[in-house]
Design goal:
alpha+beta, eight-stranded mixed sheet, 21 helices, 20 strands, about 20% strand, glycerol-3-phosphate oxidase activity, glycerol metabolism
Length: about 625
C-alpha cells in the first residue's frame, strides 16, 4: 500500500475536512502504538509528527527489548514481570524485529557491585520464572571466570568472579516504529509527518476539540478537529502542554540524555550483548553490544535541559564512556579516533521517579527484610527441588513486594511502572514516560480510556481488540517459526535476482513485506547502487514515507550508525535516485546533500575530533 509524499497530500486534506474521533500528537513508539490499536478498534484516528517518525527518542535507544534484570537487585519484581512478559508480546506482534540474543553479565568482586555470583543466580532464576523460559534453550546459566574470558579476552581480569547468561532481545527501534505506523495507515488512520501543533482548539464548553497545526513542508496552517486529543510527544510532553492554556502547566518529566558510541568490531570484539557494572563504583551499569560487524556501548544518564530537537554527544559524555569502556576493557585502548558513529537521545522519565530505566540511582527504593529475603530463597530452592509449586514462588514474591512497597513508599510503584496516563479537566489526554518494551501495554491502557470516553461522552461505539495479537506491518507470520519464515522470504528475494546475503538482509529488515520490496526490481538497479539498495530505497520512498536521505540512511536503515564506511560511495547515488523519484531540482539536491553531510559529521563526532582533545582521551 502506498505511504509516500504523494499520499501525504491526500492525508492532509482528510485531516483538514474530517471530524476525527482521536488526534494523536507525536509519532514515536508511544504514538505509533496508540495509532495502530485505535485504528484497529474502528476509532477514526489521525496522527501528526513534527519531524520524521521516530526521529527523536524512539530511534535513539540502546536498541534492545531489555528485561530489566537489575531491578531484581532491589526486588522490584513488578517491573521485571511486566517487562519480560511484554517483551514476548512485542516479539509476537513484530516477529521480524526483536530477536532473542542471550546477555552475558560479568560479575566482579568490588565495592558497589550490582550482583555477586550467588545473588545473580537467584535473580536469573526469578527472571526465568517471570519470563516463563525455564527448561527452554533460553534458560539462564552461570559461567566461570575462565569461561567469561574465553568469550571476552579483553575484559578486565582483576576481581572477575565469573558471570551469568540470561535471555534478552536485540531490537531495531526505528523499524519498530515505522512498522507500527505503516500498519496504522493500512488500517485507516490518517498519518502525517512534518506537521507541527501550534495551538489548541476549544469548544464552547472549554473542552479540547482539536489543534491548530502547521505543515512544515509548505508552511500552510490549518485546523484539525477531533473529539479527543492525546499527547504522546515523549520528552516534549511538558512543552506541548504549554499550548494548552486551560490545562495545568506543572512539569511532569525529568528528561535525561543517553549516549552510545560505535566502534569497529575488530577494535572491541564481543560475541554477545554484555551488561556489566562500570567499574567506577558509581552504581551504574552499561551495555556493550555487537551489531552488523560493529560494537556499540553506552549509555550515559545525565539530566538534560538543552535543545530537545537536537541533543548531541558532548565532550563530558565522550569522556565518561571512554573511561568506562577502557576500565572494563583495558587492553582495547579505545580513543575518540576509533569512534565511527554515535547517537544521543532523551528519555522521558517521570519527574518523581528518581530512577532511570537502565542505570538506577536516585532515591533509595526501600529495603527488604532478611526474613522476607530468606523465605523467598527457601521457596525458590524448594521449587528447584520440585517440592514447591510455581504458585508457592509467586506467593513468596507477592509477600516480598508487599514488604518492599511498605518500606519504599509511594514512589516505588511509580518507578516500577515508569509511565503516566492522565486526562486534564479540559479533556486533553497525556500518555508519557515508559520504555519501548512497554509501548504496547501503555497504548492498550490509553485505548481503554479513549474507547470509554468516546462511548460515554460522544456515543461513538468502537470494537474491542486483542492488541497482543495485532501484528505490525512486515510481521504477519507465525512468531514461533521466525527462522523458517525469514528463510522463505530470503528465497523469494534470491529468486528475484539478489545474492543470498543481500536477500537475507532484506528479509530480516522487511519481514512479510519482502514480497512487496522485490516488486521494485523491474526497473533494474539505479546508477551507483546495488540491486538490494535500489529496491530498498524505492520501497522506502513509496511505502514508508521516506522524504529525505537522512530518513533513509539513519532510520529506515542503519547505514549511518553501523555502516559508516559505505557512506562516501553511497550518499550521492542515494540522493540521485531520490531526486529522480521525488522530482528534486539541483538546488534541492544540494540542500539534501548538506543535510546528509551534517548528520554524518555529527554521528562521527567531527566537531569533537577537530577540537583540542585532552591527551589522556586521545
Amino acid at each position: 500500500m502506498a505511504f509516500s509524499k504523494n499520499t501525504r497530500t491526500q492525508t492532509l486534506e482528510t485531516l483538514k475536512h474530517t471530524d476525527l474521533d482521536l488526534l494523536i500528537v507525536g509519532g514515536g513508539i508511544t504514538g505509533a502504538g496508540v495509532a495502530i490499536q485505535a485504528a484497529a478498534s474502528g476509532v477514526k484516528t489521525g496522527l501528526i509528527e513534527m519531524q520524521d517518525f521516530a526521529e527523536g527518542t524512539s530511534s535513539r535507544s540502546t536498541k534492545l527489548v531489555h528485561g530489566g534484570i537489575r531491578y531484581l537487585k532491589t526486588f522490584d519484581v513488578g517491573v521485571v514481570s511486566d517487562t519480560v512478559k511484554e517483551r514476548a508480546v512485542v516479539q509476537g506482534i513484530a516477529p521480524h524485529i526483536p530477536r532473542p540474543f542471550p546477555m552475558l553479565m560479568p560479575i566482579y568482586d568490588e565495592p558497589g557491585s550490582t550482583f555477586d555470583m550467588f545473588s545473580v543466580k537467584i535473580a536469573m532464576n526469578l527472571y526465568d520464572q517471570l519470563a516463563d523460559v525455564e527448561g527452554s534453550q533460553y534458560a539462564n546459566y552461570t559461567v566461570t571466570r575462565d569461561e567469561v574470558l574465553q568469550r571476552e579476552p579483553h575484559l578486565e581480569k582483576t576481581g572477575l568472579q565469573g558471570g551469568g547468561v540470561y535471555l534478552d532481545y536485540v531490537n531495531n527501534d526505528a523499524r519498530l516504529v515505522i512498522e507500527n505506523i505503516k500498519e496504522a495507515d493500512e488500517l485507516g488512520a490518517s498519518v502525517a509527518s512534518h506537521v507541527q501543533a501550534t495551538g489548541v482548539i476549544y469548544n464552547d464548553a472549554g473542552q479540547v476539540a482539536g489543534l491548530h497545526v502547521k505543515d512544515l513542508l509548505t508552511d500552510e496552517e490549518f485546523d484539525i478537529h477531533a473529539k479527543l486529543v492525546i499527547n504522546t510527544t515523549g520528552p516534549w510532553s511538558d512543552k506541548f502542554k504549554a499550548l494548552d492554556n486551560k490545562g495545568s502547566q506543572a512539569p511532569t518529566l525529568r528528561p535525561t540524555k543517553g549516549v552510545h558510541l560505535v566502534v569497529d568490531g575488530s577494535r572491541l570484539p564481543v560475541p554477545q550483548p554484555t551488561y556489566l557494572d562500570t567499574g567506577l563504583n558509581d552504581g551504574r551499569m552499561f551495555f556493550v553490544v555487537p551489531r552488523e560487524g560493529k560494537t556499540y556501548f553506552g549509555t550515559t544518564d545525565t539530566d538534560y535541559t538543552g535543545d530537545y530537537e537536537h541533543p548531541r554527544v558532548e565532550q563530558e559524555d565522550l569522556d565518561y564512556l571512554l573511561k568506562v569502556i577502557n576500565t572494563r576493557y583495558p587492553e582495547a585502548h579505545i580513543t575518540i579516533d576509533d569512534i565511527q558513529a554515535s547517537w544521543a537521545g532523551l528519555r522521558p522519565l517521570i519527574a518523581n521517579n528518581s530512577s532511570s530505566d537502565y542505570n538506577g540511582g536516585g532515591a533509595d527504593k526501600g529495603k527488604v527484610s532478611d526474613e522476607s529475603f530468606d523465605a523467598l530463597i527457601k521457596t525458590v530452592d524448594a521449587y528447584e527441588d520440585k517440592t514447591a509449586t510455581r504458585q508457592d514462588v509467586e506467593r513468596a514474591i507477592s509477600k516480598l513486594e508487599t514488604a518492599h512497597a511498605e518500606a519504599a513508599g509511594p514512589t516505588a510503584s511509580q518507578v516500577s511502572r515508569g509511565s503516566s496516563l492522565h486526562q486534564a479537566p479540559d479533556g486533553m489526554i497525556t500518555l508519557s514516560g515508559g520504555k519501548i518494551t512497554d509501548y504496547r501495554k501503555m497504548a492498550a491502557g490509553a485505548l481503554a480510556l479513549i474507547r470509554r470516553l468516546l462511548a460515554e461522552k460522544f456515543h461513538v461505539e468502537t470494537k474491542d481488540i486483542d492488541s497482543k495479537t495485532l501484528q505490525v506491518s512486515g510481521g504477519h507470520f507465525d512468531p514461533t517459526n521466525v527462522y523458517d519464515t525469514i528463510s522463505f522470504y530470503t528465497r523469494i528475494a534470491m529468486d528475484a535476482g539478489l545474492p543470498e546475503e543481500d536477500a537475507k538482509d532484506l528479509a530480516n529488515r522487511f519481514g512479510s513485506n519482502t514480497s512487496r520490496v522485490v516488486t521494485y526490481v523491474q526497473d533494474g538497479a539505479a546508477p551507483g547502487l546495488s540491486l538490494k539498495e535500489t529496491i530498498s530505497l524505492r520501497y522506502s520512498i513509496n511505502e514508508e514515507m521516506t522524504l529525505n536521505p537522512v530518513d533513509y540512511l539513519l532510520r529506515r536503515t542503519n547505514a549511518i550508525l553501523f555502516h559508516a564506511e559505505t557512506l562516501p560511495a553511497l550518499k550521492q547515488p542515494v540522493i540521485d535516485e531520490m531526486a529522480r523519484l521525488l522530482d528534486w531540482d539541483a538546488d534541492e539536491k544540494a540542500s539534501e546533500m548538506s543535510r546528509l553531510d551534517a548528520a554524518i559529521a555529527e554521528s562521527e563526532l567531527t566537531y569533537l575530533k577537530q577540537a583540542d582533545t585532552p591527551a589522556a582521551i586521545r
